[in-house]
Design brief:
Number of strands: 0
Structural class: mainly alpha
CATH class: Mainly Alpha
Radius of gyration: 22 Å
Number of helices: 8
Number of domains: 1
Distance between the termini: 83 Å
Bound molecules: protoporphyrin IX containing FE
Mean pLDDT: 89
CATH superfamily: Fumarate reductase/succinate dehydrogenase, transmembrane subunit
CATH topology: 3 helical TM bundles of succinate and fumarate reductases
CATH architecture: Up-down Bundle
Low-confidence stretches: 1-5, 225-238
Helix content: over 70%
Length: 238
């Protein structure tokens, strides 16, 4: 019985580990890279959104479910289970070794991303599908949203947490899969992980800065009622 549970844990842990890198880690990096189009111009940022919106709806939804939602939901749910089970010794040991601290921070960042993503996905994709209005995820809506200091802070911290989680995760991933075996190799990868952490954070923050650099296009974010419009015109011609 004990053997069955630990074997099951082993397989699930491996799937959790892989999903963190592919597709979730890969998705986040390309997602933030595409979001940096905000620094080019509102039109360029919107053209990325329109590219995806131009895909057949069933294809886009199937791609989102299979390549993002299911792997992310699994990684998040199993990750929370690991966090809940793990004995955290950062606060209980006398010596706060840096590896202990990094371990604690990776788990803390997992919890932070969990709440950040609930807010982020509901206020973007879910709201877009519920309202049938893609304007809510375009440049003007982001510029308005991020001029609220609290929301800007939430996004800055969300990006920082996710980048740290990915950077440290890559280091752990290489050890788990036997890619780095020697102490020297592990130290080299630790440096690369640090670079990933800083580079991905900066990429996300640059994307945020893009929403402060241009004048919004002035497109209404709320959908215009098609019933109201003819009546108003009639009133104006009288
Ligand atoms: C600069 C900050 C960010 C911006 C401007 C941004 C923008 C967007 C937009 C416009 C969407 C809606 C896509 C659609 O429905 O077509 C979206 C969805 C999403 N974002 Fe972000 N995002 C940011 C940061 C992040 C971060 C840090 C993560 C990961 C931790 C993330 C993960 C997601 C996920 C999982 C979705 C749902 C994907 C889907 O269903 O298509 N985003 N984001
Ligand atoms: C949504 C909330 C999330 C939670 C609760 C979570 C939780 C966790 C936990 C607990 C671990 C450590 C597993 C272990 O050491 O055994 C982990 C690893 C990892 N996570 Fe996440 N995670 C989340 C989101 C993300 C996101 C958005 C990414 C990508 C940017 C990601 C990428 C990774 C990677 C690459 C690993 C390393 C895999 C390994 O240890 O082999 N995670 N996650």
């Amino acid at each position: 019985m004990a053997l069955t549970i630990s074997r099951e844990d082993y397989v699930m842990h491996r799937i959790h580990s892989i999903t963190g890198v592919l597709p979730v880690g890969y998705y986040m990096v390309q997602h933030l890279a595409l979001n940096t189009f905000s620094i080019a111009s509102p039109e360029k940022f919107n053209s990325v959104i329109e590219f995806f919106e131009g895909m057949p709806k069933h294809f886009l939804l199937a791609m989102e479910i299979a390549m993002i939602w299911v792997p992310l939901a699994f990684h998040a749910a199993y990750g929370l289970l690991i966090i809940n089970r793990a004995k955290n010794n950062y606060f209980t040991t006398k010596y706060k070794w840096s590896e202990n601290r990094m371990f604690f921070l990776q788990r803390a960042s997992g919890v932070a991303i969990f709440f950040f993503l609930i807010y982020h996905v509901i206020s973007t994709t879910v709201l877009k599908y519920a309202s049938g209005n893609a304007e809510i995820i375009k440049y003007d809506a982001w510029a308005a949203k991020l001029h609220n200091p609290l929301l800007l802070l939430i996004y800055m911290v969300g990006i920082l947490s996710a980048s740290y989680h990915l950077g440290y995760g890559l280091w752990n991933f290489c050890i788990r899969w036997g890619i780095t075996v020697t102490e020297a190799a592990q130290q080299r990868i630790q440096k690369i992980s640090g670079v990933v952490f800083i580079a991905v954070t900066l990429m996300g923050w640059v994307a945020l800065a893009g929403f402060f650099m241009h004048k919004p296009l002035g497109t209404p974010v709320a959908p215009v009622s098609t019933e109201q419009a003819p009546n108003t015109n009639v009133g104006l011609t009288r």
